Amino acid sequence: MDLKLLFISALLGVACYSSAQPEGNECIKANAESCGDCIQAGAKCGWCTDTDFLKQGEPTSARCDELDSLKKRGCMATKIENPRGSQRILRNKPVTNRKKGGEKLKPEDITQIQPQKLALSLRSGEAQTINLKFKRAEDYPIDLYYLMDLSYSMKDDLENVKNLGTSLMLEMSKITSDFRIGFGSFVEKTVMPYISTTPAKLLNPCTGDQNCTSPFSYKNVLKLTSNGKQFNTLVGQQQISGNLDSPEGGFDAIMQVAVCGEHIGWRNVTRLLVFSTDAGFHFAGDGKLGGIVLPNDGKCHLENNMYTMSHHYDYPSIAHLVQKLSDNNIQTIFAVTEEFQPVYKELKNLIPKSAVGTLSANSSNVINLIIDAYNSLSSEVILENSKLPEGVTIAYQSRCKNGLVSTGEDGRKCSNISIGDEVSFSINVTAQGCPKHSKSESIKIRPLGFTEEVEIRLGFICDCECQKDGIVSKDLCHYGNGTFECGACRCKKGRVGRDCECRRDEVSSEDLDRNCRKDNSTDLCSNNGECVCGKCECKKRDNPEEYYSGKYCECDNFNCDRSNNKLCGGHGRCECRVCVCDANYTGSACDCSLDTSTCLASNNQICNGRGICECGTCRCTDPKFQGPTWVVLSFGTGEKKDTCERDCNYFTLIKVKDRDKLPQPVQTFPLMHCKERDANDCWFYYTYAVNNNTEVHVVETLECPAGPDIIPIVAGVVAGIVLIGLALLLIWKLLMIIHDRREFAKFEKEKMNAKWDTGENPIYKSAVTTVVNPKYEGK
């Protein structure tokens, strides 16, 4: 192979090796000075507690590395500190397997999620997986609160809702034997411009002979009850009211229903809020129209079941409503007319566990709407978690019906769940480091719309067990300037060095630095480390297999000679930049094999008895078997061109015209076909055979590479220059045309805008004088 090709291949080989270097691991990058710092760097990190583990020049942080790397470096497994996380189940009540008509249970005795309480011990970077099971209980209690818009446009709807109580109780009895229903109504804030504040309109906001009740913001008409007839009676007593603008104040009412649990009578069961309207809604910021600027405080303000602070606080925002509905486990059903379906569907996308149904013009389909919406909401379970502590992440995986497995955001939920179906969730909780303030935290996970939750207590592994056995003694760590723990000194504040022998403020003094220079060199620690307390602490490499060592960090195990792109040819180890070869190998790169089996000829003689075996290759000693060097005499070139007649007279040279004329091998004597490249990069072909005499056949014509065709190259360059010049001229011409047109347009514009003075010259007198005869009577 050509030397150039060999050189390029060598470069490529080195480049390939460099790019294949393993990336630095998180353990080395952490520069951990203690076992606690090390185990927080990552789940793969361990700390070697062996007191004799470190080599000369290695810093204390070299004790922290990946487990496999520590073992390769000679640290026994029993000396590696590597605590792991764990989990304990504290409460694990089985899910309820109750059937309708069976034993009557209190809501708090029904369990749909398991387990209920756990404790996790988290190691940084190591995920702890917990498995949750959810099962929809049959005959689960339901509380439903019907919140209705009583503005004038809902007059016909009110008539149909008056009999809703008993009808809905009958339908819901097919789902649960424990059902309660309540009723509330809303109109609008009682200030201008939402309502008319004239005295007459405050008494009766409706026009004509319509008898309407005074406007109000929100009224809790009926607390949740299992008495359907009471619902019909109280709703039948309600009257329509009125307001001025189209959007209603429903958000004020929803907020009060969510936060006024005692007034509404919510239990810890399935909570449904049916919001019925035929109009849009006001939200945060709209209160400014009425001079209300205080944001909604999200608190209960019911007095005598009336919302009394509508004129004081603005409407709540959508995000505020989402928070309060979620905090109180309320699932919302928006029963709205066809006209406002698009608006409330967008609102549904912002409120988890909500549904939208199309309300007929007179609310005649409200029962079917509620049943369908409830079935839709209850058939889906969505897990949510409370705010996570700093550095803690959580990932969900769901295993739903029919073996469907989902991850990511979809891993939080399962759909199409029927009563009695059981689904499971795998939840990975991972911590990155330890919290700054507290070493114990807790999070809660619960299914949206349900009151049950799973409490998870979090503990963090921030220190190693060996740190508990730390020793403070004057005999250790330079007269007690540190604690000897986990095989190394943990220095007090302000102290540095492997044995805490120096103060931080004297680390870089000249006297100490002198001890870090080899042979009075100007380089500290051979530029491969830092001088700490007069001792070199060598740099760490990203590749854990590579390291600097020595008193002055002058040694390393990765800068030895290479062969075949391998350090020490793959047949030795690198010690202080010198290859220590394995048995049967020698050479600076351990690339010379002492095995002679590759030099054995078919007659079992080494090199046919005509040479010696060096590095697994024959080197001929007889000049008749020196190879093709003398063949170039046929062309009068080569290193022996002047002595060929004398030195090469022991063979016969025969020239042939082309390669086809070269002799072919026969059984009577061996024949070798060869080709070589001369100093002019030309190939020549020949054969040689050793019989009674040596014959060499050479093709007399050399095969030389053709030189470049100059004419096309020159023509191409000239054509390129011409084309570039033409392109530049065209661009210049185009720019000039654009510039001229802009200047002309500017001139025309100024010409049109010019205002010439048309006033008369005050000195000018006309040459014509007109005189009128005063006696002339026009006859």
Automatic annotation (TrEMBL):
Topological category with respect to the lipid bilayer: Single-pass type I membrane protein
A Gene Ontology BP annotation from the UniProt entry: cell-cell adhesion
Domain Integrin beta subunit VWA: 34-464
A GO CC term attached to the entry: melanosome
GO molecular function, one term: integrin binding
Annotated family: Belongs to the integrin beta chain family.
PANTHER family assigned to the protein according to its UniProt record, in alphabetical order: INTEGRIN BETA SUBUNIT, INTEGRIN BETA-1
Name of the protein: Integrin beta
Organism from which the protein derives: Electrophorus electricus
Record lineage: Eukaryota, Metazoa, Chordata, Craniata, Vertebrata
